């Protein structure tokens, strides 16, 4: 199997595919997935990029920020997604602390995602400040997806989850961050939580595809956290989230029905039970009849 083919008619998505999409003006789709079943459904639906995002800290592990998730936990979930994904580009998120100490540390941690979990690229948050890390990763043959704007790993530094890029200075800094990532060789840049106008300017300026989340429709692609899209979260959705399903309601209803069926003796039915082969059942009947006769 070649790197550009997955053995069926669907061409494998690579970083080169994404670059070509920008040149051709074809939009890019990206979703998060953190386990085999979800990654398989997302891949089979033809989504281009599957991100094992550190959002798993919140939507899967129940933390109230992305900060606590570890490299080992991210590796565990990336491996699960890897077993499912055939066509999409599989990107793993570098968790907080895994690239903030030194570029050497960044390469050591990032290479584990490719070597031990089968990721094809990593994502890290930050622009100019993280350029040394980005360069070192690219030198080490690790494709990098940048991520600027509302970067959740900076929640405390930002003073909360706030839309970024609202002042002229902030817009100029975002533009410098995007250009720095582009020049350093990032293959795409996630733009999160910034005004539509700023995302449009950055998308126009940089040579690599921008993938928006809460950044308006003028990016080269869009990403959502799968639990937001499915309605599988327990907090009010952000303004940019479009819920395509109410999975909480569907799942709760199914669990309630199971509970009622068990309590009322309606589950399992005879047709949901295994049965003895006829000859074994007949032999068992004979033995029991004999026992009954002897006990009279
Ligand atoms: O962790 C994540 O899911 C992300 C996306 C929101 C881009 O970083």
Q: What this model shows, in words?
A:
By secondary structure, the protein is of the alpha/beta class. The chain folds into two domains: 244 residues, Phosphoenolpyruvate-binding domains (TIM Barrel, Alpha-Beta Barrel); 45 residues, no CATH class. The protein is 44% helix and 12% strand. It contains twelve helices and eight strands. An eight-stranded parallel beta barrel has the order 1-2-3-4-5-6-7-8, surrounded by seven helices. Helix 5 links the parallel strand 3 and strand 4. The chain starts with 14 loop residues before the first helix and ends with a helix. The relative contact order is 0.10. The mean pLDDT is 96. The site of 3-methyl-2-oxobutanoic acid has 11 residues, from loops. 3-methyl-2-oxobutanoic acid binds next to loops.
């Amino acid at each position: 199997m070649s790197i550009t083919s997955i053995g069926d008619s669907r061409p494998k998505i690579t970083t080169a595919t994404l670059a070509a999409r920008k040149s051709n003006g074809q939009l890019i789709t990206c979703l998060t997935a953190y386990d085999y079943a979800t990654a398989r459904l997302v891949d089979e639906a033809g989504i281009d990029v599957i991100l094992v995002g550190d959002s798993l800290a919140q939507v899967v592990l129940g933390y109230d920020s992305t900060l606590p998730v570890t490299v080992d936990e991210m590796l565990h979930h990336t491996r699960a997604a890897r077993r499912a994904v055939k066509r999409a580009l599989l990107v793993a998120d570098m968790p907080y602390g895994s690239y903030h100490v030194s570029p050497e540390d960044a390469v050591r941690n990032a290479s584990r995602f490719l070597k031990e979990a089968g990721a094809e690229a990593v994502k890290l948050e930050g622009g100019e400040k993280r350029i040394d890390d980005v360069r070192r990763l690219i030198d080490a043959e690790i494709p990098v997806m940048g991520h600027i704007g509302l970067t959740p790993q900076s929640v405390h530094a930002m003073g909360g989850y706030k839309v970024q890029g609202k002042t002229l200075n902030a817009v100029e800094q975002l533009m410098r961050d995007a250009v720095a990532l582009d020049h350093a060789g990032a293959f795409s840049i996630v733009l999160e939580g910034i005004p539509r106008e700023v995302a449009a300017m950055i998308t126009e300026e940089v040579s690599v595809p921008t993938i928006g989340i809460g950044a308006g429709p003028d990016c080269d692609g869009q990403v959502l956290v799968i639990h937001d899209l499915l309605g599988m979260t327990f907090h009010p959705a952000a303004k940019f989230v479009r819920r395509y399903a109410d999975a909480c309601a569907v799942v709760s209803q199914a669990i309630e029905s199971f509970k009622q069926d068990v309590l009322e003796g309606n589950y399992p039915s005879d047709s949901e039970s295994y049965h003895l082969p006829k000859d074994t059942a007949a032999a068992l009947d004979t033995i029991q009849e004999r026992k009954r006769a002897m006990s009279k």
